[in-house]
Amino acid sequence: MPLLVEGRRVRLPQSAGDLVRAHPPLEERARLLRGQSVQQVGPQGLLYVQQRELAVTSPEDGSISILGSDDATTCHIVVLRHTGNGATCLTHCDGTDTKAEVPLIMNSIKSFSDHAQCGRLEVHLVGGFSDDRQLSQKLTHQLLSEFDRQEDDIHLVTLCVTELNDREENENHFPIIYGIVILSSRTAVNIKTAEIYRASFQDRGPEQELRAARALTGGPMISIYDAKTEQLRIGPYSWMPFPHVDFWLQQDDKQILENLSTSPLAEPPHFVEHIRSTLMFLKKYPSPTNTLFPGNKALLYKKNEDGLWEKISPGS
Prior knowledge:
- The protein contains 9 helices and 19 strands.
- The chain is of the alpha/beta class.
- The chain has an 8-stranded mixed β-sheet, with helices on both faces. The protein has a 5-stranded mixed β-sheet with strand order 3-14-13-6-4, with no helix packed on it.
- Helix 1 crosses helix 2, helix 3 (about 100-110) crosses helix 4 (about 135-150) and helix 5 (about 210-215) packs across helix 8.
- The chain is globular, with a radius of gyration of 19 Å.
- Mean pLDDT is about 90; it is low at about 185-195.
């Protein structure tokens, strides 16, 4: 079944700009989202999703009430929600394998959904900008096309991507929105409420370098959270030694930006520091299976009474 806006089928291929102009409610929602101030989101109740990670929860979850991600330049943050039961999935897509990732997103929501249940599937796409290499434009088209190919009706509610999320300064282009949160609660299901908020994060959850290392070494999209046990599950992961890691660690900030970013001029200020710490981690753990995951078991975390992640005994 098709991708729908206001009950009408979306005609693809279209640019994001053409699509919102054909559907004024989409254009208005994008304008309102761009106009929001950025909220600093604390760790309580938050599940932060890194690049190539997926997390899904529902209003029955006693630990997680907010899903969020940021640092999206050419990447897109995708939210899929079932309005009947409030099941909500958030993921941070970089275009590596969109064709495989969209079915993963769909299946994560279906695992919560009774098909006889009333309600509908709604999708929100945020991120990207008018970058020189047109990577954002390509990812926007991939995501829209793949959602349009799914068997279920999917209602496109928010589209604030690529040229709709672009600002120009001194002839250089930048994203307006780098990060969002969505509230996982029944009251947020009504599309007339401001359910998606612009956001940035001081705390990005446990095992940041480990999770970033998996993505930098080419790991695929994975689910990191089990809403039934309310546990964050990290690994076990494996990767090959990162090529020329010593060489990259010797390079200056400009070289790292130009060679290890898809959009060097538009990265947030902490990008180079983040890449350097990830490379240091990869140098320290060239083969992580036994050193980071004793017995090849996952690292498990659960929110404590203060709403902060706390490590629990290894899983199986």
